[in-house]
Structures are given as structure tokens and as C-alpha cells.
Amino acid sequence: MNDWNDDVLTRVVPRLTPVPLAERREILAGPASNDQHRGHFDRLAVLREIEAGGSARRREIEGPARIVFWNVERLRHIDAITETLKTVGADVNLLCEIDRGMARTQNTDRIVDLAGRLDQAYLYAVEFVELGLGDVHEQARHAGEENAQGFHGAALLSGVALQSPFLIRMDARGNWFDGVFHERRVGGTISIGAKVTVSGTPVTAVSVHLESHCDPQTRAADMEGLLRRIESVAPGEPAILGGDFNTSTGGLGERYNDRAAWLELIRQQPDRLTSPENYEPLFEVARSFGYDWHEANLPGVPTQRFPVGSDRPNHKLDWFFTRGLKVTDPLIIPAIRPGGMPSSDHECLAVTIVPLT
């Protein structure tokens, strides 16, 4: 018997159901077991909802469509990110890691703000209800503050009508709930999608975020579940997935428990982090569902960005996967603010598509 989160969710609302501060405090103060997480996960209505807002100026895209994917890292640097997106001028923007009502982003509504700046329609759904202030650095910077809403999620934005919206919850494991990862949360990774009409043909566009704190086998299983459910709403149809697939080529323990051993492995396999296809079985899963990634991505180019002087190795974590589409002009746009500092810890990806049929 399937759980509700194994279904494709389609409930669209004008505003996501809030989780009051008192309730978040109560969850945080209560037991931190997996069973408790599952109870909260099942109870919170917001985890089943898609918010639709803004306005679309066009019904369809005539001719080729330009698509962006970007992990915008909280959408913290919204001014610089807005300018980059305006410069690219994509027909559809697939985004993840977007705050709403988080102290670390001034308790603002980042997705509504961005949609207004771009004059676009949006779909937004919550990955995690945040019970604290964020990671250890954010906890220190914002000590004593409170989150107004505590939402962290993913979105589609477009000047074209976003039709038949859907939400896929890929992860109900609750690995972030007990505090082991130093960031208390209810929820799990998601994909959010919709259909856009390109040259008269419906194309399913999906923003994807796979879990970083797991191993390649778990990511492959999540990918299989994602593609199986997309098949239920778009069987054999043209589709583009843009996402942070977290193709780090290792599990969390492997990468951090013996850091010296991991760095030595990277030294011995220098292409591992920027050409991860042989180390991440999710690529073979994608192939088995009829998806390709070769033409849609620049080979061997990392998609992470850290400040100058950082000793963190850059990975190729972000990808487009396509089916039933002619793909051209893949591009990686630097995530840089005026002055040279990063606007996100991921670069912005863009590609042009047109249906084959």
C-alpha cells in the first residue's frame, strides 16, 4: 500500500497553509525520533500544497524555449539573482532553495518578491518546514531571532502559463529531524513541475532537488521514484528536468568521516567530481526512462561556486535531463554579485529546447 507521499500531488492554493511559531516550537521541543517526524510530516498540510501566484503574459512559447535551472541558495542575494535572470531572459525558470519567512533572509517572502520583479507567474512548494535558524553559521549570525514562517522550498517562474502543476515528494526519511546534521527540519526533498506549451506541444518542466546527505544508491532510488511518477502524468511526453542532483559521487560519511582519504581519492581520480556519470547510478536510471543529458550540459565543467580562496572542491551537481526534445546552446552563467562575491553557491544553468514532434 502506497503512502500519500508516493502519489503525485496536485492541490493548488492561493497561499500555503502556515505553521504557527507556537507549533514549530512545540515540535522542536518534542521527541526527535523518526516516528515523530513521520507524524509531523503526515499532519502538516503545507507539505501537500502548491502555491500559485503572479501572472502569465502569454499562453505559449512560439518557437524554441530558453530554460534556466538555478539553486539560488536561500535566494539570499535576490538583487544580483534578479539581474542575472533578467539578463538571461529565460521563458521558464526552474529554481530551488527559496526561503519564505526565514530570519536569515530578513523574514521576507522571497518567491513573491522575485516573481514581482520579473513580472512572472510562479508555483512554489515547501521542501522543509525549518524549526531553527538554519545551518550552524546562520544560527550564529541570527542568534536570538525567530523565523516568521520557516519555509524553504522550490519554484517555477514563467511569463508563460504554467499548466497542470504537480508536486512530487521524493524523501520522507526525516534525516534532518533529529539534529545530527545540525539543522532541525520537517520534510524532505521535492520536485515541482508543470506543463508549458512550446511550438504547440506540451512540455513537462520540472525543478528537481535530490538529497545531499545520502549516498549515490539512495539518490538513484529517489531518481527512479521521481521518473516513475512523472511518467504517470506525462507518459512518454517531451520533458525537461533541471535540478541540483547532488552528484557528489560519495556518501556523507565517505566524504567527511575521513576527509584526508576522500581528498586523496579525488587526487587519484581527478575527473570524478566534474564527470560523475560513472559514480552516480542515477544517470543509468535516467537513461532507462528515455532521458538524455549529453547535449543539455557542458561536459566536465563544475557548477558550484565558492568565494575566492575557499579550499572546498567544486563539483558538477546541477544538470538538465531531457526527453523528446531537440536541445541546443547549453550555458553555465557565473553566480556573481557586483564586486565578485558569489550570489549563490551554485552557478546558473540555461539551455534551449524545442519539441521533436
If you average the pLDDT, what whole number results?
97
Alpha plus pi helix count: 9
Global Rg: 19 Å
- What name does the CATH topology carry? Deoxyribonuclease I, Chain A
Number of strands: 14
> What is the chains' assembly state?
single chain
Structural class: alpha+beta
CATH superfamily: Endonuclease/exonuclease/phosphatase
Shape label: globular
Order of helices and strands: EHHEEHEHEHEEEEEHEHHHEEE
Give the termini distance in whole angstroms: 37 Å
Summarize the model shown.
The protein is α+β, with helices and mostly antiparallel strands. It contains nine helices and 14 strands.
Task: For the structure shown, list the relevant keywords.
single chain, 357 residues, alpha+beta, Deoxyribonuclease I, Chain A, globular
